[in-house]
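# step 3/5: fold
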Amino acid sequence: MDVCIDRDALNEAVEQVHIAGGDIARANPIFAFLRLSSTEDRLEIVASNSIVTATTVVPVKAPTPGALCVPLKLFRQAIEVLPRGDLRLQCREDDGERNRLVLTAPGWSLALSIRSASDYPPTPTVTDEGIGLSSHVLRFLLARTAHAADKNLDRPIFGCVRILHEGPDLVAQAMDGQRVAQARTTGALPGSEPILLHQLACEEILRLLSSASENTVVRFGAGGDHLFVSTERTTVAIARLPGDLPEMPVEVSSKRVRSARVPRSLLLNALRASRKLTQHREVCLSLSSDGITVSSDPRLQEISVRDYVAGTVHGAPFELGANGDHLAEALGRLECDEVVLEFGAEPVDPISLRPTSDEDVVMIFMPMTLFR
């Protein structure tokens, strides 16, 4: 292999796909590598973790095409060290360097150990079928729900976002047993059956869409055992998962007896401050006549936190425990100025969180036992 490429172009391409790489199942160490394959005018970069495979291409000049696998982490670090400008990637078999990829730039030369491209599993074949979907629609659905999917790989169904049709709308739902998120908007997807996207794929798709403009159309399709989301140069292939999520809890659509409308950023800052200072996720939410107080366990001898967030409150004073990490993660996924927290009649009733914007989004959280 002999490839000439702009350093920034290579760095951007690797950034597009690298999160998909990793031996998450501890079954195949090759997933800790990137597969590089060059033709005369383009370089294909592949990263995979057995559930998600991300592929991108970048224009190059390649006097000698070839293919190989290079350590993902070390390759990223090497690119970041090298200066901006022209970069050359060479696998030289005539001078004893056949097991290394040499990266050269003005004043620099780095050599990385490599593996054969044949060691990498075959990548899913992308079909020409599928439909165009607004990147704005897909980004909205995944950004508002993916955080609520279970991060535990032992429970794959709870680790998914489900996207389904309800009339003219697309609805995305995720839950992990302690929280729920649902977002609704107008749109269409191929087929009529619900689609399950693993949370690992959702994060990679969001990364892919982060650089897309509002008017970009992505291609969303299905083929064999995989789903595909593609832009002009990058494709994310997601392994199909069996089963379905349980029914959504009634609190997604029901109204509550108490509510507080507060600034999103102030509540988020209070939760983050409590977590940073105490290192504990548990917080107490105290509803007063004109706001919410976020407090940590007062039994902590090193430090405890109390932060008042003014707002508009309806209902009698109330107090319950909550997972501050879950609340903060949800607030960080919203983009509105204010949010509405809704509570039931008892401290064991779930907490609802909704944006005050026109977005059709609701997030549900199970309470935690209050410290006493």
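# step 4/5: annotate
The chain is about 20% helix and 40% strand.
# step 5/5: archive (pending)
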